[in-house]
Amino acid sequence: MTVFHFLNCAVLTFGPHVVYYSATPLSEYDTIGTSVKAAVVYLGAALVKLVCLATFLKVPDANDSFDPYQELMKILIGFIDVAGLYFALTQLTHRNISQNHKFQAVGLGWAFADSVLHRLAPLWIGARGLEFTWEYIFQGLEANANLVMTLSLAALGSLMWLRKNKPRTLIPIIYACALLLATMPSITSYLRRSLEWQTPKVVGFELFSSLVMAFISWQLFSACQRPM
Amino acid sequence: MSPSGEVVASVSSALAVLLVLLACVELGDAAAAVGVYRLIQYDLAGAPLGSRAAALNHHAAAFPLPAGADLSRSALVAPLLDLPLSFLREYLSEKKHLGGLLILLPRNISAKNVEGNNDDKGEPKNVLAELEKLLMHEEVPFPVYFAFHDDNLDNLLADIRKIASSGQPASASTGGYKLVVPSAEPKRVSSPTISNIQGWLPGSRGEGDAEQLPTIAIVANYDTFGAAPALSVGSDSNGSGAVALLEIARIFSRLYSSPKTRGKFNLLFGLTSGGPYNYNGTSKWLRSFDQRVRESIDYAICLNSVGSWSNDLWMHVSKPPENPYIKQIFEDFSDVSKEMGISVGIKHKKINVSNSRVAWEHEQFSRFRVTALTLSELSTPPEFLESTGGLYDTRESADVESVMRTVKLVSESLARQIYRLRGRNIDVFADNSSLAISPHYIRSWLDLFSRTPRVAPFLQKNDPFIVALKKVELSEHTTDVHVQNDVLDGMFTFYDATKSTLNVYQVASVTFDLLFLLVLGSYLIVLFSFLVITTRGLDDLINIFRRPPSRKVKGA
Question: Which residues cross the membrane (chain A) (predicted)?
């Protein structure tokens, strides 16, 4: 029984990435190489992040409250992700695929690597136990939200760094949205720790906000696509 | 093999190793782990008795049960007072199978029923005694465990009841619970040992007195027997007797420490084991003595269950009360008891040598033709394996005051005999004197006895408790301290696994997992369709399902 539950949770966590790849034109243009490169960049960025976290943050106590300075440091370190995405989008040489597909492939690789790194091990150890908890189902839902957000961020990133002629009025909005997306992990951590939201509420918020952000990014992206 | 093939092989073998390693990662991830105590498992003359199984892995159930429920694959969780004995009797007599039974004991067993309205259920103590008697003398084919009420178990019970009352089949939202006791097959305890501990207080021989001094023996058995070996602390039976003996040894050692006050009697103190098994240890102990020593014993006072009496104590003898010797001892006790304002009664029960049942410890002495008596609060001889320190016999069932009165009674009358003070009305062990009986000493020993389960087969011969009794206590006050280890006689076979850990898991039902898979599948299909439609158009989606054969043709 427990293996069944484990498989279910694994499908919920990693299924959407596969579905996304096979359903969109990404599979037709064979962009897996780009995704793998993005995943490798993610690994590098995660390593740098770990080193930074270990260097600049103190060990959290059990009864730790929300410390603004520590959180600010965390947000700054969180921007290493953005730097990584920038590197993956602009500095890597990709087989010539359209910008349209490039950001999707990078975002997908990025989100998949994130899921594997952060969710596979807990899933393997936890979901196979006899004990049933909702935790791993929520974790799978979180992976879904994370995929949507990473794609949105990658889309905005490609707008910011790759597209030269975009409507001037939209530029501040693009930057604001990107900033919001980049700080999203800190926001959820604030909700969890400081406002003491329960996991279902936090996951619901993540899912909702990711959909909203995806919609906004989509609108921005298509607005920039239109010829001026 | 080509180089690339080798690489693939090595990578795949490395992956296999990794997977094996990952599969080994098992964590104790139970929602709750509770210490539980198993019902005793033993054979009596070949007949299997007690709980015959230890491993438990079943879904939890609780009263009230739905009509016609099949419990053969359920672990029944029942608080002591909610478990109808008739239900259990029916299961045992009809040999119906039960997955397992977990009985929740109240923290304080002696406490009176606080909720006055459920008087029909009776006092926990009486209910427990009856339950224990039932379970101990029957063969129980399923595992039975005892646990104390705690928050985890109370929550569990409330949850199970909620599920049962809603009448829904167990699903993840209502939740089912699985009780797991990982336990190997219980093993026989090979050659159970009993340890008798003895110490002497030698009297002073008058000058030129060649004759051997007479000896007075004070004896108490210290081991217990109960439904749960790991919970049989037997504070009253017979912790109280053993504690009284230790205190008597302590105060007489003060008198005997100075040559001036040393009496013309040897005092022999014996803490015997094997008491519940017809005083098997006492018999072994007496047999180990030299014939001369045994004959020098004037008489023996056995102390049994002296921890909870208010006014009446009984002196049990196997010789007729008209016997001048017995009469003298009884008069001594009566004199002191009158001064103390209590009453001592005498009960005579003849011994039957052909009957293997030995109800009182003094009967073993009588079989060796040594005059002996038992002081006890019990007015009638206990049945076999009764009053041997069962589950209900906890610290609350023995009080320091009773033990002190017993010590006072015994030591005063002994002193009058030893120092020939009869009829002089002298209080040798008066309060506030240096020979006063110490309530602190009695309390601390009674507390220790009440924390230590003492079922002889599970008490190793070098158990800290026995070492404490021998080294710390008797050696401190008496000389020639000696521990006699012997094997318990063959009628009994015991099995181990007396306590273990119960893991409580909250588990989801199969239906939930299937439902979840269904929802998940539809979610992924919807997501797939949505993505295809938005990025490639509806036609492509339809083509995916329609075209495969034509594509093949194209490819060919």
Answer: 39-60, 72-93, 169-191, 203-221
pTM over 0.90: no
Which of A8, A129, A131 is nearest residue B517 as measured by Cβ atoms? A8
Helix (H, G, I), strand (E, B) or coil at A75: helix
Out of A11, A24, A129, the one facing B29 most closely (by C-beta) is A129
Q: Which residues of B touch A131 (CB under 8 A)?
A: 29-31, 505-507
Question: What ipTM does this complex have?
Answer: 0.85
Residue A209 in tokens: 């906000």
Per-residue pLDDT reduced to its tens digit, B32-78? 788 999 999 999 888 899 998 888 888 888 877 776 677 888 888 88
Task: Match domain B193-487 to its CATH number in 3.30.2130.10, 3.20.20.10, 3.40.630.10, 1.20.1640.10.
Answer: 3.40.630.10
User: Do B527 and A125 make contact, defined as CB atoms within 8 angstroms?
Assistant: no
Among the listed residues B27, B144, B131, B136, the one whose alpha carbon sits nearest the alpha carbon of residue B75: B144
Show residues of chain A in contact with B508, CB under 8 Å.
1, 5, 132
Characterize B399-437 residue by residue with b for buried, 16 or more Cβ atoms within 10 angstroms of its Cβ, and e for exposed: bbebbbbbbbbbbbbbbbbbbeeeeeeeebbeeeeebeb
Residue B40: burial class (beta carbons within 10 Å; 0-12, 13-18, 19+): buried
Q: Which residues of chain A neighbour B29 with C-beta distances below 8 Å? A: 126, 129-131
